[in-house]
């Protein structure tokens, strides 16, 4: 395992210890509302602090972009961190959440870790070295047709600007696929595409920390990732489509009639 990836795994496991202990009694947690349906707890902050401390102990000159504490430092290396993707699930005892850590070097994704502490599923990827689940090589599924594909998604829950657009997308994908699921953690959804548990995924308006590690996993597992036009702006725009090569193309085609000018920007 690459040294930087190994450090990220160590950081994720340390954060998972904090999250797992807190999950035993979430009623004791202090919860703040950042926005409508957007929660943060002291667990998010403690997990993030542990991740940052672990990373900067090993690489003190690296920059950080983290969900709760924002951006710090200036370096050609930047760690992108979501300490608890799926906070709402976590607060309700719904076991679908994870830690997501990615490393970008000069704008290119190099390392990715997604760790699901409820299942002890550790997804890792290094650019050009493949994707792994608990040290076992993973590949996207062999799905060739959207009609046979299980698709993951995340519907709007904070910003409803594109709600009508999304509902049109959902209606068409429901009719043309084998099924649609919305588990509530975009990072894990992308990891599931990489592992062949989903055949495709799409969502509107995600953040970098939601998708950075997962995008690398999908690509290293042989899948494709793009924005709604199939291009590479997804990390910045947060509008993302991912899947097996065949399903990716068919999913793009299905979504295309609903893509507004605002979603092309």
UniProtKB/TrEMBL annotation:
User: Which superkingdom heads the taxonomic lineage of this protein's source?
Assistant: Bacteria
Q: Name one GO biological process term.
A: inositol metabolic process
Its family? Belongs to the inositol monophosphatase superfamily.
GO MF annotations, alphabetized = inositol monophosphate 1-phosphatase activity; metal ion binding
Identify the residues that bind Mg(2+).
67, 82, 84-85, 210
Protein name in the entry: Inositol-1-monophosphatase
Keyword check for Hydrolase, yes or no.
yes
Enzyme kind, highest EC tier: hydrolase
Please give the InterPro entries that the UniProt record associates with this protein: IMPase (IPR033942), Inositol_monoP_metal-BS (IPR020583), Inositol_monophosphatase-like (IPR000760), Inositol_monophosphatase_CS (IPR020550), Inositol_monophosphatase_SuhB (IPR022337)
The family database entries (PANTHER family) matched by this protein are listed as: INOSITOL MONOPHOSPHATASE, INOSITOL-1-MONOPHOSPHATASE-RELATED
